[in-house]
Amino acid sequence: MSQYFEVHPDNPQARLLKQAAQILHAGGIAAIPTDSSYALVCHLDDKAAAARLRQLRGVDDKHHLTLLCRDLAELATYARVDNRQFRLIKLGTPGPYTFILEATKEVPRRLSHPSRRTIGLRVPDHRVTQALLELLGQPLLATTLILPGETTPMNDADAIRAEFEKSLQAVVGAGACPMQPTTVIDLTGGEPVVVRTGRGDPALLGLQPHG
Question: Does residue 57 lie within any of the structural domains?
Answer without folding.
Answer: yes
